[in-house]
Amino acid sequence: MFDIKWIRENPTAFDAAMAKRGVDSLSSQIIEADEARRAHIQDLQKAQERRNAASKDIGKAKASGDDAKAQELIDEVAKIKAFIQSGEDTERELNGKVTAILEAIPNTPLDDVPQGADENDNALLNTVGEKREMNFEPKEHFELGEALDQMDFETAAKLAGSRFVLLNRGLARLERAIGQYMLDLHVDEHDYDEVVPPLLVRDEVLYGTGQLPKFEEDLFKTTDGRWLIPTAEVPLTNIVRDTIIPVDYLPRRYTALTPCFRSEAGSAGRDTRGMLRQHQFSKVEMVSITDAESGEAELERMLECAEAVLKGLGLHYRVMTLCTGDMGFSARKTYDIEVWLPGQNAYREISSCSFCGDFQARRMNARYRAGEGKATEFVHTLNGSGVAVGRALIAVMENYQQQDGSIEVPEVLRPYMGGLTIISAA
Questions:
Q1: CA-based nearest residue to 351, from 18, 110, 125
Q2: Strand partners for 252
Q3: What class does CATH assign to 4-103?
Q4: What DSSP string runs through 150-209?
Q5: In this structure, what DSSP letter does residue 421 have?
Q6: How far is residue 208's CA from residue 236's CA, in Å, rounded to a whole number?
Q7: Where are the domains of the chain?
Q8: 391: burial class by Cβ within 10 Å (0-12, 13-18, 19+)?
Q9: Beta bridge partners of 388
Q10: With a threshold of 0.85, does the pTM exceed it?
Q11: What is the C-alpha to C-alpha distance for residues 236 and 283, in angstroms, rounded to an integer?
Q12: d(CA 207, CA 364)
C-alpha cells in the first residue's frame, strides 16, 4: 500500500517506478479519484458548518418572534441533514474507490533491481558449489521414491486428490529431519525467534501481507470464513500489526516450520509429476521487522541465512536477482536461490528472500517510534524461505542418490535420523 500524499507530490517518480513493473501510468487516475474524495469531504464539512450555524439562528429567530424565519431555517437544516446522511454514504464509496486502486498496485522496485518482463530477464548473482559427479544416469525424485516404496502419489490421490503425496518410513523421517535441521540452524545460529503460529487466519491478516484481495484464487478458505495460510510469512509478519514498537526492540526476527496450503491456481499442466508443486507442503519461513534504515542490509543477511541451509546440506545452487517483471506483489527486491536437481538436469527455486519496505506495514498499521517525543514511522518488513522443506527433500534425494537407487543421508541430518546413513528399500 502506498502513501497517497507521496503519490500526489511525486507523480512522475511513481509512474516511472510502476512502468518498471509493467503497470501503465496510474498517478493521474489515483489523484483524480483522491481529488473527488477530498472535494466531497470539503462539501460535507461546509454543510456541517452551515447546519450548526442555521441551528443557532433558529433559536434567535424564535426568540425574536420571527416564526417564518425560524421555519425557513428549520426546513434548510432538514435538507442539510439529508444531504449529510447521503453524503456520508458517498464518502464511503469514494474512500473505497481510492483504496481499491491503491491496494491493487504492486510495490515499487529498488533502483538496483534489473528491469525485465519475466524469469528470463533475472540476473545471476553468484553460483555456489559444484555439481555432483555421477557415473550413472540420475533419476528424478519421484522415480527414486516410488522405487523405494516410500513416496506414494496414488494413495495420496485417493485421500485428497491430485497434488498431494504420502511419504513413509525413511523418506518421511528424512523430510522431518530436514525441517528440524533448518529450524535449529536459524534459531541457534541465526538469532531467529521460533514461533508456532496459527495455520488459520482472518481476512485482515492476509490483507496485511498483500495476498488479499488480489490473490484470493491462490488460497483455500474454510467454511467459517478463515483462510489456510499459504506461507508462515502471513502470521509471522502480522505479529506486529496495529502496534507501535520501540526502536530498541528492532530488529525482530521470527522463524517457523509450518504446513503451507496453496490452490496452485493457474498452474494446470505444470510440474504434475512428483512433489515440486503441491497443494500442501512444509516450509521453514524467516521474517524480519526492521527500522527504515536497516531493511536492505537485513535482506543480505537473510539471504546468507537461507544459503547456509544449502551449504550445510552440501547442495550446489545459484542465486538470482529477480527482475521487475518476476518479483512478487509486495516486494521491492527479491533474491531467489535455485538448487541444482541432477534428475531434472535443471536449477529449481528452493528459496525466495524479499525486502518489502513499508509496503506491508502500511496495510498492517505496524509502526515504530525512533525515540522519546519523535513521530512514529512505519516498520520495514522482509520475508524469506529458509527453505522449502519438500523441495529440499527433492534436492537431497536427487543429489545423494546412489546407483542402486538408495539415498545417502547428508552428514548434518544424521543426528535427526537416529544415525541412519542410507535410505534403502530394505
A1: 125
A2: 289
A3: mainly alpha
A4: -EEHHHHHHHH-SS--EE-HHHHHHHHHHHHHHHHHHHHTS-PEE----SEE-HHHHHHH
A5: -
A6: 11
A7: 4-103, 119-423
A8: buried
A9: 283
A10: yes
A11: 13
A12: 8
Q: Is 419 left (phi over 0), alpha (psi -120 to 50) or beta?
A: left
211-227 per-residue burial string, b: 16 or more CB within 10 A, e: under 16: bbeebeeebeeeeeebb
Pair type for strands 346-355 and 193-194:
unpaired
SS3 category, 377: strand
Cβ(264)–Cβ(386) below 8 Å: no
Residue with cell 509496503: 359
> What's the CATH code, domain 119-423?
3.30.930.10
What is the identity of the amino acid at 193?
Answer: D
In order along its 426 residues, the chain shows pLDDT tens digits of: 788 889 999 999 999 999 999 888 788 899 999 899 889 889 888 888 888 888 888 878 777 877 788 788 778 888 888 888 888 888 888 888 988 889 889 999 999 999 999 999 999 999 999 999 999 999 999 999 999 999 999 999 999 999 999 999 999 999 999 999 999 999 999 999 999 999 999 999 999 999 999 899 999 999 999 999 999 999 999 999 999 999 999 999 999 999 999 998 666 666 678 999 999 999 999 999 999 999 999 999 999 999 999 999 999 999 999 999 999 999 999 999 999 999 999 999 999 999 999 999 999 999 999 888 889 999 999 999 999 999 999 999 999 999 999 999 999 999 999 989 999 997
Burial of 291 per CB tally in 10 Å (0-12, 13-18, 19+)? middle
Peptide bond into 251 cis (omega under 30): yes
Helix (H, G, I), strand (E, B) or coil at 74: helix
Smallest CA-to-CA distance from 346 within 126, 141, 151 is with: 141
